[in-house]
Amino acid sequence: MLDPSISPKTVQRYLLPAEKCVVAVRRHWSILIRPGAAALGAAALALAMAWYFPEENAVVHLAVWPAVVAAVLWAGWHVMVWRHDYFFVTDRRVMVTHGVLTRRVLMVPLGKVTELKFQRSLSGRILGHGTLILESNVTEDSLKDVQYVPWPDTIYVRMCDLMFDSKE
């Protein structure tokens, strides 16, 4: 399950020489609903205030538009972060990459994963995302919950297949 919007060069950057990528996806687009709704709400509020208050009330007009610009920039930042965050599963590891300016890669060896679960809320079932919960005997829980994973049931089955193949 390789997302066609992710370039092969991006995937290869994180792979070991003999490693095969099985899953490479971005977080689900629904992670952008809240920032998008906030930006649209700010723009709608600004338009309503500009329409309601007369143009002579310059304080309202000058104070509202910077807030709209800030909300739109905030939403744009979230889109940029979403475009650069990936979830990878290889035949050896599970990885999550974060960051635009500073890149962070969280990794757990597949052999160290002791338990794998997934859960889907009602909104996750409607929109098509879920949370993968990885439990491992690694001391750090840096990669415990991976939220907004698209097709979590399919990815769960593929990961279970890899885990059971590697333990036999």
UniProtKB/TrEMBL annotation:
The keyword ATP-binding does not apply. InterPro entries: YdbS-like_PH. It holds the Pfam family bPH_2. The keyword Transmembrane helix applies. The chain crosses the membrane at residues 36-53, 59-82. It comes from the Bacteria. This is PH domain-containing protein. Residues 82-137 form the YdbS-like PH domain. Keywords: Membrane, Transmembrane, Transmembrane helix.
